[in-house]
Structure to design on (263 residues):
């Protein structure tokens, strides 16, 4: 079954695993910038990653056999404030690339002043460039999740950013209803530290009148666990959800949200 993975960190994967993923039916992916760098870096580290996303990662995708698109943002962990300022100055130049289809991951994790300021600035940049956003939120079992998701939504509204152009990623059951009521897309990240495929399938099955709200992705899986989007599709097939509805969730929704030039 063909699908799009709208949040796949290909930079963490080798060629062999990417080929296996493509063989499962992945026709395209969106590769977002990491929200967290392991260490403390200046702007050069981020700019090097952006160059790789718009160079090597696009060429590698073509060689392996899938279409790749990019989402860029300034990390809110692992970057000095001076480094963040420099990245923000240069970001608009990178956003002009026709393979950049969104900004992200941007958002909040614990709600520090630095996170909030960076989030507001990037929302303004995304709005000025008419780009949707992939919004990082605390993972499913994070204790701060219910409070931080409220802060995320409040900031988006205060910046007058359109909620229908937002994916609130890493959704969990405890914040699901609040996210759904916000008007944003519900990002279900199916990986080891976030949500298992069966849980995602149950949320979809229990909200069949709102299928247009769901965006399914593998995000940062582990080992061979990157096959999680088709695992959700298989769980939905076992539950006898019509093929057209499964296809909508795993292909049509991300294609429409990112306005991807695919057949």
């Amino acid at each position: 079954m063909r699908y799009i993975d709208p949040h796949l960190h290909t930079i963490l994967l080798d060629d062999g695993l990417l080929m296996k993923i493509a063989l499962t039916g992945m026709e395209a992916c969106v590769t977002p910038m990491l929200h967290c760098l392991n260490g403390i870096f200046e702007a050069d580290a981020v700019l090097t990653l952006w160059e790789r996303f718009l160079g090597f990662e696009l060429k590698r995708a073509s060689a392996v056999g899938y279409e790749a698109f990019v989402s860029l943002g300034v990390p809110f962990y692992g970057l000095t404030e001076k480094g963040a300022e420099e990245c923000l100055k240069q970001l608009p130049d990178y956003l002009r690339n026709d393979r950049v289809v969104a900004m992200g991951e941007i958002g909040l994790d614990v709600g520090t002043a630095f996170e909030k300021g960076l989030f507001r600035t990037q929302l303004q940049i995304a709005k000025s460039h008419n780009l949707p956003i992939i919004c990082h939120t605390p993972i499913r079992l994070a204790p701060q999740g219910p409070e931080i998701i409220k802060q995320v939504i409040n900031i988006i509204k205060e910046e007058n950013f359109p909620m229908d152009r937002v994916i609130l990623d890493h959704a969990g059951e405890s914040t699901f209803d609040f996210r759904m009521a916000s008007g944003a897309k519900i990002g279900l990240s199916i990986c080891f530290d976030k949500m298992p495929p069966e849980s995602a399938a149950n949320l979809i099955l229990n909200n069949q009148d709102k299928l247009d709200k769901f965006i399914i992705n593998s995000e940062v899986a582990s080992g061979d666990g990157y096959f999680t989007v088709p695992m959700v599709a298989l769980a939905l097939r076992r539950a006898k959800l019509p093929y057209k509805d499964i296809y909508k969730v795993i292909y049509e929704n991300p294609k429409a949200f990112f306005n991807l030039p695919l057949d």
Notes: The chain has a mean pLDDT of 95. The chain is about 45% helix and 20% strand.
